[in-house]
Specification:
This protein is of the alpha/beta class. It has 16 helices and 13 strands. α2 packs parallel to α15, α4 packs parallel to α5 and α5 crosses α16. Bound molecules: 1,3-dihydroxyacetonephosphate (13P) and iron/sulfur cluster. One of its GO terms (biological process) is 'de novo' NAD+ biosynthetic process from L-aspartate.
Length: 388
């Protein structure tokens, strides 16, 4: 079968991966102590030795978008749902090192016991989508819903990709968290309890789930823009809508367009187009299959040898799948490089640094959510974990 063709590099993507860039700016923030040099030939051996020294006290979680150099050290890899489940299922591990992004580590802290410590190897590993919904903006939105007389019939629901404060907002108002692998079930749950849903912060996952999975129409959805008074919506629009979508998105999945889908169908006859539901509605509508990162992996595992796949999600995962499925033709849906720059902040030097700090008896980059926020957020997270 043909080998994977690397998409064309862009200057920014390479900079974010630390190639040909200013080494000092690549260190991220808040990394006290000595960060090993990326060129250190002993990095793999050092990571192995630190992991062995920590033994059962350590549990490393790795999201599928992590670099290969990091994912090789994960005890469990998964999508955000599986990683949340796994974090909650390891009460014996003293240290949970989260190779993923900040909102995932926060959720892990909420779901673990008070004695367990969650560590994010680089504090600069955030998520631009999660940053698109600030608690104060969401409070304003709720106020607008109250003034329109619809807050009482609206169930708030947040995608996992949100801060702990947003999850707490949702928990306080009897709502639910969802991930890309259970959004349909969570949305059905919400519509059994209310007439409307306020979906935070990813408008695309909200719209795709409502229209594609629940059969609502695009006209049932409105977009609340936190940068405009009343979200840029009239009271009547809020009253008429079934889905009030927060104006947030993932810039990585925003790279895939309808043209990318058309183009790959022309280039690769018979190709199966498989995308993540954070892609826009027109991309998802034009795709053959849609699902979370775990779904994407399982779809490739189950695919016939010789079949062709164009995948619209982060490049580290797509390249790994291409390497693992040499008997299938795997193509990246975009023509240019498309990494999640913040996920890529966690590299081997940061992982080695974090593990060696733990061996030395220091706890670096601990992620802690305050007790009040955690109490409300865990209500909405536990509800998600208990969905049938
Ligand atoms: P998954 O839950 O599908 O792994 O997605 C997480 C994510 O951040 C995708 O952008
Ligand atoms: Fe956030 Fe998008 Fe990166 Fe996922 S891929 S962590 S949504 S920026």
């Amino acid at each position: 079968m043909s080998t994977f063709t690397e998409p064309a590099p862009t200057a920014t993507a390479l900079l974010l991966l630390g190639k040909g860039s200013d080494a000092a700016s690549e260190k991220g923030v808040d990394c006290p102590g000595e960060l090993p040099a990326p060129s250190d030939p002993d990095l793999v051996a050092r990571a192995r030795a630190a992991k062995e020294a920590l033994g059962d006290r350590l549990f490393i979680l790795g999201h599928h978008y992590q670099r290969d150099e990091v994912i090789q050290f994960a005890d469990v890899t998964g999508d955000s749902f599986k990683l949340a489940q796994q974090a909650a299922a390891r009460p014996e591990a003293e240290f949970i090192v989260f190779c993923g992004v900040h909102f995932m580590a926060e959720s892990a802290d909420i779901l673990t016991t008070d004695d367990q410590k969650v560590i994010l190897p680089d504090m600069a590993a955030g998520c631009s989508m999660a940053d698109m919904a600030a608690a104060v903006q969401v409070e304003d939105c709720w106020e607008a819903l109250t003034e329109a007389g619809v807050a009482d019939v609206t169930v708030p629901m947040t995608y996992m990709n949100s801060t702990a404060a947003i999850k707490a907002f949702v928990g306080k108002r009897d709502g639910v968290v969802c991930t890309s692998s259970n959004a349909e079930r969570a949305l059905n749950w919400a519509f059994e309890r209310g007439e409307k849903v306020l979906f935070l912060p990813d408008q695309h996952l909200g719209r795709n789930t409502a229209v594609r999975d629940l059969g609502l129409s695009l006209e049932d959805c409105v977009v609340y823009n936190p940068h405009k008074p009343n979200g840029g919506l009239t009271k009547q629009q809020l009253r008429d809508a079934k889905m009030i979508l927060w104006r947030g998105h993932c810039s990585v999945h925003g790279r895939f367009t309808l043209d990318s889908v058309r183009d790959v169908r022309e280039r690769v006859p018979g190709v199966n187009v498989l995308v993540h539901p954070e892609c826009s509605h027109d991309v998802v509508s034009a795709a053959d299959y849609v699902g979370s990162t775990e779904y994407i992996i399982k779809a490739l595992d189950a695919a016939e040898p010789g079949s062709a796949w164009a995948i619209g999600t982060e490049l580290n995962l797509v390249r790994r799948l291409a390497n693992r499925h040499a008997d299938k033709q795997v193509t990246f849906l975009d023509k240019t490089v498309c990494y999640c720059s913040t996920m890529n902040r966690i590299d081997l030097p940061h992982l080695v640094w974090a593990l060696e700090e733990l061996v030395a008896g220091r706890v670096p980059n601990q992620i802690t959510v305050d007790a009040e926020t955690a109490r409300h957020a865990s209500f909405a997270l536990d509800r998600m974990l208990a969905l049938p």
